Amino acid sequence: MDTSGTVSSARQAGDSDGLEALARVGLIAYGIVHLLVAWLALQLAWGGGGGSADQSGAMATLAEQPFGKPLLWVLAIGLLALAVWQLAELFRQVPGLRGSGERKKKAVTGSAKSVAKAAVYVFLAITALRFATGSGQSSSSQQQDTVAGVFGWPGGRFLVGAAALVLIGVGAYHVRKGLTKHFLKEIDTAQASAGERRLIERLGQVGYPAKGIALALVGGLVGWAAVTFDPEKASGLDGALRTLLDAPFGKALLTVVALGIAAFGVFAFFRARYPQRT
């Protein structure tokens, strides 16, 4: 079977103007979600709100606004387009997957990242659709239910522990990505001004480590759930941020992380303006 035509068609689909326009909407949606999470985290830090400081809390906040539910539909469509745009990257990895050595290793790593990112975008899109249709559920409750279900599988406790290690690893990767400025490969700033490039760089340097810390904390809670065999301990991002708040100097630490998450959200807006060209 000749796959060259299929790969070529997939590349053209991934590079189409229509899909890119929707992907830009998805990146804006991704940024909005992070800004809302940051706002909820700041409210949590300073005692101004009782909502969940996570993705479900962000979607619930949007749903409560005038025209919020139609906006959630738009965000969901954009996020799904962003997932498709990300999956199109898999077809660009085909030549590398057919190779060997370092080239193949790089292609496998790139493919895994594309699938993981697409899964996140699909999850957020489904969350947006659920809140748009009035069937939204707390992210913390979903994670606890998932962990409880996995505990019932053979070796479920070890699977949950493995998932925790993956989350901690992803968090560490985000921190490293921010410190090494590796995130600049995800954005094409050739048309940006010198001032914008400096701002984009600073936003990434702050945003990626902050998001990495939050993800590592989520992973830590999942790991603790595995150790204690208690799914209630896997309380998601909201639980992670509340754990941070309970630490010494918690209010200051949570404020710093919240501002970092906001920086990541603004970085996503710049990615929408200057999308990556591959």
TrEMBL record:
DUF1206 domain: residues covered: 25-89, 114-180, 206-274
Domain of life: Bacteria
Keywords from the UniProt entry: Membrane, Transmembrane, Transmembrane helix
Residue ranges of the TM segments: 21-42, 71-91, 112-131, 151-175, 208-229, 249-270
Keyword Membrane among UniProt keywords: yes
Protein name (record): DUF1206 domain-containing protein
Source organism (scientific name): Modestobacter versicolor
